[in-house]
Amino acid sequence: MSPLKTQIRKSIEFLEDPYHSVVENIAKLLGLHCVGWIFTDLQALSMSEGTVKNLRNGDTFFLSAQECIHAAYFQNKYPSPSQLNKSGKFGSKFCNSLYFGQ
Asked: pTM for the whole thing?
């Protein structure tokens, strides 16, 4: 399921999901938790043929500033537990994955 978002030219803004806490509670009851985020910039060329347009290559950027900010946001949202830190949390094992074509 895709997170709620608004999209403008070359940028997105994540919106608060009213069901997020419900989904997290159900996942917790099932012994599951959020481990990462997968994103892409591939654009569909032909839905019937399943082809896509690749926007990244050796002559372009690997990650945009906005994507780095989103990755940091999610890593801060899902910190790792730590017995050695007074807050009980330190760092993050949250995984950010970019999928792009060649």
From this structure: 0.69
